[in-house]
Amino acid sequence: MTNDELINSIYSGDKKVLAQVYNQYRKEFIGWGQKTFRCSADEAKEAYQLAISIFYENIKTGKLRQIDSSIKAYLFAIGKYKIFEEIRQNARNISDIKMEILYVNEEDGEYKKELEEKFKKVEMCLIQMGEPCKSILELTYFENRSMKYISEKLGYKNTDVAKNQKFKCMQRLKKLVLK
Amino acid sequence: MNEAQKSEWVQRYLEGELAGQELLDFEQHLEEDLELQTLLEEFKILVGGIRYHGRKQAWDEISALEADAEANETLGHFSIGERTRTLYWAVAATVAILAVCVAYFINNNQSVNTDQLFADNFMPYAALTYAPQRSDTLLTSMKEQAFAAYSNRNYPEAISLFEDILAQSEETIVWFYLGNAYLTQEQTEQAIAAFQQFLEADPESILYPQATWFLALAYLKNDQLEPAKQLLNKLAEMDSSYSERAKKLLNSL
Asked: How far is B48 from chain A (nearest CA, A)?
């Protein structure tokens, strides 16, 4: 499979391909991290997990559709610029880096402690709502899928029906969160 | 415009659907309309929370892959650089196997050595996602303590703490790790119950294949070959990284 085919498979939800990619670059990345940035094996392992997590998320959200160079180069670039250099040059530790990415406010790219609480509450309510709302909202706002895709995937008559359902779900979610 | 209409407008704005004049109208109204501003802030949090949830799920999947990779490492996939060590191990293993074979002939009433198979295949699953972070409530810090004990291989304490947590709340994931902890102490009946509980409570969990694998191992250790084989067959058919392992184990049964 070419790199773009691999990315496409992962975008379509192929877990086996994801596992393959994960195992393919792991050892090399960890060795490179330890050697080049002189971090511990544990730190390098965590860094690899984080790098792949970012890679995977970018695919799932539709941000990464194709790669010009190679998956390896992409992963190593994330490793170097987002993780290892932060650790070495700015003396950050990896858990802080993870927290920031996990709870980031996407507009200004800033991490705020209050956001952590709020996001967790929203998540709880989202899970509480169950289907079909959970899927509709995930597909709309996390995976950034089109209404056409969503209505086909979830079996709605047409996009207007799906849109209406999505709107209702958001209203329900808001009600639950503000309770 | 009533609240519902404003809500819809805000959502379309957040989804990037507004353009041209409509977008300008929205931005203009935003400056003057307090209700619109509040709605926007509220929906931004909702969207942020939904994205956070999606992100967390994706990260949990990756965590599981890391745990699998570490399990594979320790179960001994030797790399080319360790050929000499492999040779010594091969010799030692051959001697050990011969000794075991002799023991079989002398004192054997079982055609399958379930204890050996269990020992060869069981490795407690790493609790990577639950590495202690900041704690806000009492339950979170109990969870932290429990997983810290688990990660430090202090399984008896982990068992006790996990049981306390489950007495207080419905933390499904705890069943999974409790089952692992029981297996390390060879409390197979309890392990079987724990994994069954987990599988029943969360059949959509990404750890479903792992839990099925561990339940099979628990049955195996408990000398219940039929249920073990059933589960392994199920795994072999699943589209999972555990299919190969399951097939291999089935061949030894």
From this structure: 7
